[in-house]
Structures are given as structure tokens and as C-alpha cells.
């Protein structure tokens, strides 16, 4: 259970960084790029002799899937940062963690599985909760009427990442290690995310549109450490509860949603209106229904 607790703590710290970025005047996109460099470096260090950079990872059949994951990593992480800064930490985490319903829907479409009433209820409730938790009074006037698209993008994008990991799991279940649980695969995705972000940043640099500031690098490195370990400890948790991962994942998500909401209220003084409170309760209910269906 210690790994589950550490996963929740690391994930909550990660998303809280975006509020600190806002206060410190950090360029979120630049910080995210150096965050993924940090994730890749830490992953390679922990991999030891099996480090990604020492092997031709592009020869593995799952490499093309990690390209998709890596591109979504950096784009959705940026969307999570924007959501946390403009709508709040709790909104960003609810949107990301409720995306667990998307792999369920994809599984139905691709593998012709039949949904139970619990799954249908969980999916419908999750959609309502995302809408309710994203309703913030005054934010439409301050950020525009399309501000509600941010949590929707996070919701869908996070679901695509989860779905791609699931597809890797089903298709490339080789030897003794499931690719989803492999730090090698995850670190490759982190590396792809960094390369994609760096190419875009270099393009902007050459056009004279941006300047790299030292504080963006420092904050990015600081963000990368809890971000990597949020995944690392989740992997450890899934390995420890390998026989019951379908329940552990929703429990992890509930813990992150609850912890991030408490942090947003206590430390960042975010206020939850009635809609937000109802959405938070419904989000937990939706995840519970999806977990109970697997029991």
C-alpha cells in the first residue's frame, strides 16, 4: 500500500506545480519540455544496463505506439497545466482521471465486449461530473467562452494515452514483462515527448519568437522528478497488486482526485461552488462503479 500512497502523493505534487508556475511566472511549455528530459534521464538511470539510450529501441514493434503516447504526453500535459492554472487543480485532475472510461468504450468497440449496467452508469455519470466540476463562476468572462474545452481535451487525450497503453498490453505481452509495466517502454515515451517538444522549441527559437530562461529549466527539472515517480510508483503498485489491477487503478484515481482537491482548497485557496462539489462527488461515484464492476 505504500507504493499506492506514494503514487497519489507524487501525482498530486506534479499537478500542483502548475499553480506554482503561474505564481513564479514560469513558461509552462518550456518547463514541460525540460520536465520530460528529466523524466527520460531518471528513467535511463534507473534502467541501469538496460538504459533506453543504449539500445536500438526503434527496432521494437511497440516503438510506433510510444510515438503516439509521447506526442500525447506533451500535448495533454500542457493542457493539464493550462486547466490547472485557469480552472483549478481539482478540475485538471478530475478530467484526467475520469478518462478511465475511454479505454472501456474502446474495448467494447474493438473487442465486442458487452457493457454492464455499472459500466454504463459509470460512463454517463463521469460525463456529467466533468461538466459540473469544470463550471467556474467568472472564468468564462476572464478566459473566453471556450474555456470549457480544456477539461474536455484533457479528458479525451488522457483516455487516448490509457487506451494506447492497453493496446500495447494486449498485443505485445512478451516474455516475463508486460510492456505497460515496463519502465523501458514508459521511458521511451518520455524520450519521444522530449524530442517532439525540443523540435518545436528550436523552431520557435530560430524564428525569434521565444527566449529560454534559466528559471524555466530549473522549474522543469523540479517538475520532472515527481512526474516520473508518479508513474514509477504506479508501476510498483500495479506489480504488487497484479491480480487485482482493475480495482487498484480506480482506487488510485479516486485518491488523486481527492488529494488534489484538498490541496487546491487548502494551499491555493480555490473555492468549490455547488456544481464543483456535486461534480467531485459524482466523479468518485463513477470511478467506484467502474471498479466494482471488476470485482
Task: Describe the 3D structure.
With 295 residues, this protein is mainly α. The chain contains twelve helices and no strands. Helix 4 (89-97) runs antiparallel to helix 11 (245-266). Mean pLDDT is 79; it is low at 175-181.
Overall pLDDT score = 79
Number of helices: 12
The low-confidence parts are 175-181
Our Rg estimate from Cα atoms comes to 19 Å
Shape: globular
The main β sheet shows up as: none
Summarize the entry for a quick read.
By secondary structure, the chain is mainly α. It has helices spanning 2-24, 28-47, 63-86, 89-97, 101-111, 117-133, 139-143, 149-171, 183-206, 214-240, 245-266, 274-292. The protein has one domain.
Give the helices and strands, then pairings:
Layout: H1 2-24, H2 28-47, H3 63-86, H4 89-97, H5 101-111, H6 117-133, H7 139-143, H8 149-171, H9 183-206, H10 214-240, H11 245-266, H12 274-292
Amino acid at each position: 500500500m505504500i507504493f499506492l500512497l506514494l503514487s497519489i502523493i507524487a501525482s498530486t505534487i506534479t499537478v500542483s506545480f502548475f499553480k506554482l508556475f503561474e505564481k513564479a511566472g514560469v513558461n509552462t511549455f518550456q518547463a514541460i519540455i525540460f520536465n520530460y528530459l528529466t523524466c527520460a534521464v531518471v528513467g535511463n538511470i534507473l534502467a541501469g544496463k538496460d538504459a533506453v539510450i543504449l539500445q536500438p529501441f526503434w527496432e521494437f514493434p511497440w516503438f510506433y505506439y510510444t510515438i503516439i503516447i509521447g506526442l500525447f504526453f506533451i500535448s495533454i500535459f500542457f493542457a493539464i497545466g493550462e486547466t490547472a492554472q485557469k480552472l483549478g487543480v481539482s478540475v485538471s485532475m478530475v478530467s484526467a482521471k475520469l478518462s478511465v472510461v475511454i479505454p472501456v468504450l474502446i474495448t467494447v468497440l474493438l473487442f465486442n465486449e458487452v457493457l454492464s449496467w455499472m459500466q454504463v452508469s459509470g460512463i454517463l455519470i463521469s460525463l456529467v461530473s466533468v461538466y459540473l466540476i469544470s463550471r467556474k463562476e467568472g472564468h468564462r468572462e476572464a478566459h473566453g467562452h471556450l474555456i470549457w474545452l480544456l477539461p474536455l481535451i484533457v479528458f479525451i487525450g488522457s483516455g487516448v494515452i490509457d487506451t494506447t497503453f492497453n493496446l500495447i498490453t494486449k498485443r505485445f505481452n512478451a516474455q516475463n514483462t508486460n510492456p505497460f509495466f515496463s519502465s523501458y517502454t514508459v521511458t521511451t515515451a518520455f524520450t519521444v515527448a522530449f524530442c517532439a517538444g525540443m523540435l518545436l522549441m528550436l523552431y520557435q527559437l530560430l524564428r525569434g519568437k521565444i527566449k529560454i530562461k534559466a528559471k524555466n529549466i530549473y522549474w522543469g527539472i523540479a517538475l520532472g522528478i515527481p512526474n516520473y515517480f508518479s508513474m514509477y510508483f504506479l508501476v510498483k503498485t500495479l506489480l504488487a497488486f497484479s491480480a487485482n489491477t482493475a480495482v487498484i487503478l480506480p482506487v488510485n484515481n479516486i485518491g488523486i482526485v481527492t488529494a488534489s482537491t484538498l490541496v487546491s482548497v487548502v494551499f491555493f485557496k480555490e473555492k468549490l461552488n455547488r456544481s464543483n462539489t456535486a461534480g467531485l462527488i459524482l466523479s468518485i461515484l463513477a470511478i467506484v462503479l467502474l471498479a466494482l464492476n471488476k470485482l
